Amino acid sequence: MIRPLVALSAIVAMTAIAEKAAAQQAADATTLEEISVEGRASGAGTGQGSGAPGVATNDGYVPKTTRTGTKTDTPVNEVPITISTVTQSELEDRRPQTLEEALAYTPGARTGAFGFNPRFDSFFIRGVDVGFTGVFRDGLRQFTSPSGQVRLEPYGLESISILKGPASSVYGASSSVGIVDLVSKRPTDYKFGEVEVQGGSFDRKQVAFDIGGPVNESGTVLYRFTALARDASTSIPGYPDNRVFVAPAVTFQPNDDTKLTLLGEFMDSKSGGSSFFDNDTEPYTLKDGTVTNQPTGVSDSALYNSDYNDFSVKQGRVGYEFEHSFSDMVSVHQNLRWSALSTNERFGTTTYAGLVKESLQSLAADTYLKTRIATGPVNHTLLTGIDIGRSSYNSRNRYNFAEIADPDLPEPTRQEQTLIGAYVQDEAKAGPWRLLVGGRHDWLDSRYFAPSTITTVVDPAGVPTDVLNPSQTTKQDKGAFTGRAGLSYVTEYGLTPYVSAGNSFIANPGTVINGGVAKPTRGKQVEAGVKYDVPGHNTFINASIFWLKQTDGIVYTVVNSVNQQTQLDFRSQGFEIESNTSLANGINVKASYSFIDTKITKLSPDTEGNQLNSIPKHSFSIWGSYDVPTGLLKGFGFGAGVRHTGSNFGDDYNRAVIKNKPVAYVDANISYDFEALDPKLKGVSAQVNAENLLDKENQVCSASYCYLNQGRKVIASLRYRW
């Protein structure tokens, strides 16, 4: 185990020194020309986008363009929607190990609500649970099943774009608050390579490499191969964090008009089946300091057994991105991905255990025509497209059996969902005005099969009788129309005020409520804000106010001392501000503040009007880094950050006994580039990252259950790049 050896300094205050910015605004024709260029490859660690859907072009921590908002390369400061970005530079500095960790400094994102639980990436944005309904990969939805969620390996990412606004009108079924788009690493048009070894807390041992470049002299074939292997434990005894990850990619670009990129991935990972802590070794405390006097519906969870506590996931995906330009004005794009995963989860105690096995297969395909036309003084970028999403899963489980061996499992529940959507979008530009209008209709075909079961009923005389519950097939075929509209005004001073509104629709996978499949979740949001691309500085600021309403969202809640799924209506309103800065003198700063006020409008009579559990009203974060460019400390890099989460309730009943107190965590890093010591060591660097540096291991409660977060985690790496 590697322990921290030094306490890292606080980040130097941001200075006003910066290089001269590029021209503030290009002419209309120039902007259109930028949009038509789609295909510059990204380099390792540069944060420069490759032009594929969702790829952001960034300068350090500062986002410049992104396709996530509109599927076109529109500058971030012009899109009338709030978009947050985790750039490659930020990923390099902070070295997150999960999607939750990667989003920890994103305004409006609630991470860590379920303590240390790396089985799933569970997080909220503006009060909306996004993990199972709003995560996309390269512009295509990642389908999920009840216990199946595609795991993320951050080492395989180029960047992350967080679109905060209903996006169903262009992306189809998705979260009420928008999407989180994970952008894969892609082939580069120059040769590069890196190999890295890591060690750290909890016996962590990891090796990774990333190589790529042209295959032939003409550069018409490019490749990239990214891989990682890890063997590690965690803060919970018997709870591993192991994985093997490989991600090949090849690009064929025979000419400037045609491009085809093949993307693949396979990952085999193993973690624990239950992260509930053991009361015998980790004292469980509620606010009143007791365990026995818990309020009704509050659970300290089952005691885990390290001999019967594992969660194995095998997942893979293969797909392509194709684009062809017929002219400067018309191009066709098609993105397709097939993916599959299988899970095997075991958890329990010496007297009680559970076993869940699931398999999921899905296909996502999006085809659209992009047309650029002019009507008088107005330039238009039109998208007309159709996409198809299909998923199918089997789930078998058994609970409440003695932990002796894996039991026989019953016939599986199954679900098949197909969504076909047709959409149109227009980005209109006239002088400083930008208008975004889009609409879409989705056709849903869903089939849910529940097998027959046998339950035992005891009559008043004490005589047990077995009752057969017949199998049941439930169908859903109600589609929906969704739309969005936004307007922004781009001034010559770098300020861009904007307004937007939209709605969303998503059919819920595998959720049965009151004997029937859950209704689709719907949402709508209105927002107004201002963006500021600071002239003369590489600084971007976004501030916005929003009002959001979601109906029939899926949540867990305790009713009559039983934790069960139900559907929830709520509204969320608030304010966000975010600033990203990267200066020529080596300083990078990312800072944000969020105010989110939630209110339950339909759940149960005794919760209506309450705040959503686990969602704080106030949160803020700041992360800064500094690479010393000259002098005695040249080659050193320093980084530090603080994440603050305000007080929030541990259940929807808003009981004070499990109210979560405000908490702040400190993260830090230190790095050294050995080229500053000797030019012969060019490409060799070392870095140490510490998460939760002050080792705050506190309790957090969500949905009436309480957990422990992970304490200090330190990871040291040695890397060679060429």
TrEMBL record:
PROSITE patterns: TONB_DEPENDENT_REC_3 (PS52016)
Secretion signal span: 1-18
Top-level taxonomic group: Bacteria
Similarity comment text for this entry: Belongs to the TonB-dependent receptor family.
Low complexity: compositionally biased ranges: 65-74
Chain ranges of the TonB-dependent receptor-like beta-barrel domain: 273-693
Keyword terms: Cell outer membrane, Ion transport, Iron, Iron transport, Membrane, Receptor, Signal, TonB box, Transmembrane, Transmembrane beta strand, Transport
GO biological process, one term: siderophore transport
This protein's name: TonB-dependent siderophore receptor
InterPro entries referenced in this protein's UniProt entry, alphabetically: Beta-barrel_TonB, Beta-barrel_TonB_sf, Plug_dom, Plug_dom_sf, TonB-dep_rcpt-like, TonB_sidphr_rcpt
One of the record's GO cellular component terms: cell outer membrane
GO molecular function: siderophore uptake transmembrane transporter activity; signaling receptor activity
UniProt biased composition (Gly residues): 42-52
Compartment(s) where it occurs, according to its Swiss-Prot or TrEMBL record: Cell outer membrane
Domain TonB-dependent receptor plug: 76-178
UniProt-listed Gene3D superfamilies: TonB-dependent receptor, beta-barrel domain, TonB-dependent receptor, plug domain
Pfam families given in the database record: Plug, TonB_dep_Rec_b-barrel
Region (Disordered): 41-76
Membrane topology according to the record: Multi-pass membrane protein
